[in-house]
């Protein structure tokens, strides 16, 4: 990958320009022609290096979601993974090193729809689905710094204000539906989105700004696919933290610069005693384990029950769909 391509992917994963011609802004910063930037992004999307250029939405601010896990007999893993993948509500599905070996994320418009999907998976497979919805997020940012050896984004860490309530209207939902799989890779993407939903370019820009200001959009930029860029090791680290300490520990891990994700989820006793989850991605297994050792020292994790679930294979990774064209529009608040 050339230095210019690296700069494009590394420097525009967040803070994507909210102007009429955002790719013009990017091209000037890189010293390239705008068509060169657009064609590079199109090609890297076709090659699977980029998932999309667009928004990462905050979990449960639009629709509802849950992390889910299944203990699947080894000889049935491929079959069950294929059944799970068939649901459009599933956007990530991984095998991990554990008795609970299949982990996926399910997103739906409302709790009833989400539960129907999970129940149907149980009926189709004859296996239980462990539901682990997010209770509290301490750090969520799957941006990757492509220059260091481990894909952390510590230099972008920010302390953000608690999200403010925002009531979404029909046009907001139409906007989310239009961009959830990415912005069009054209010179004036916001104008094209506006034409699709019956809004002006200025209205699209102002609504995106509002969604960012209220934390409904976590970041706007280039969404890279970490595995294709060399971050081939990732571990989900789960800890059993006393309830009275979970916020303190979660905030420490989230602010460490050593993890991509950190969040609290419910225990599911007796099978699952863990209530704090974090994710680390790295070039290789040793790099991830090295960062986890630093994390243990930095946040005093040595005495807590802990397991490390390395990813073994990726069955599905797509953009999350928060809004379906056929679903009724509903009001949502933070």
TrEMBL record:
Its EC number is 4.1.1.111. Keywords: Lyase. It catalyses: siroheme + 2 H(+) = 12,18-didecarboxysiroheme + 2 CO2. GO terms for molecular function: lyase activity. Residues 64-138, 229-316 form the Siroheme decarboxylase AsnC-like ligand binding domain. Pathway: Porphyrin-containing compound metabolism. It comes from the Bacteria. InterPro entries: AsnC_trans_reg2, HTH-Siroheme_Decarb, NirdL-like_HTH. Residues 8-50, 173-217 form the Siroheme decarboxylase NirL-like HTH domain. Belongs to the Ahb/Nir family. This is siroheme decarboxylase.
């Amino acid at each position: 990958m050339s230095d210019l391509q690296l700069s494009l992917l590394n420097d525009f994963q967040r803070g994507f320009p909210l102007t009429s011609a955002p790719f013009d802004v990017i091209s000037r910063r890189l010293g390239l022609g705008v068509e060169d930037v657009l064609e590079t992004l199109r090609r890297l999307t076709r090659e699977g290096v980029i998932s999309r250029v667009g928004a990462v939405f905050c979990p449960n601010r639009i629709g509802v979601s849950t992390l889910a896990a299944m203990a699947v007999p080894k000889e049935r893993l491929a079959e069950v993974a294929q059944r799970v993948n068939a649901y459009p509500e599933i956007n990530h599905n991984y095998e991990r090193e554990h008795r609970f070996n299949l982990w996926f994320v399910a997103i739906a418009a409302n709790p009833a729809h989400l539960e129907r999907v999970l129940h149907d998976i149980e009926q189709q497979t004859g296996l239980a689905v462990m539901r682990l919805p997010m209770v509290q997020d301490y750090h969520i940012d799957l941006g990757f710094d492509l220059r260091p050896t481990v894909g952390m984004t510590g230099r972008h860490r920010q302390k953000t204000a608690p999200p403010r309530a925002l009531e979404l209207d029909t046009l907001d939902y139409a906007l989310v539906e239009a961009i959830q799989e990415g912005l069009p890779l054209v010179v004036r993407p916001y104008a094209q989105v506006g034409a699709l939903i019956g809004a002006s370019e200025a209205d699209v820009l102002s609504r995106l700004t509002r969604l960012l200001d209220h934390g409904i959009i976590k970041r706007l930029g280039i969404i890279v696919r970490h595995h294709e860029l060399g971050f081939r090791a990732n571990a989900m680290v789960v800890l059993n933290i006393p309830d009275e300490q979970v916020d303190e520990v979660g905030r420490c891990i989230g602010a460490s610069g050593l993890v991509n994700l950190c969040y609290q989820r419910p225990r599911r006793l007796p099978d699952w005693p863990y209530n704090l989850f974090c994710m680390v991605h790295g070039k290789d297994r040793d790099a991830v384990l090295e960062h986890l050792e630093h994390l243990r020292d930095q946040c005093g994790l040595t005495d807590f029950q802990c397991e490390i679930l390395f990813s073994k294979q990726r069955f599905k990774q797509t953009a999350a769909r928060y809004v379906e064209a056929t679903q009724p529009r509903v009001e949502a608040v933070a």
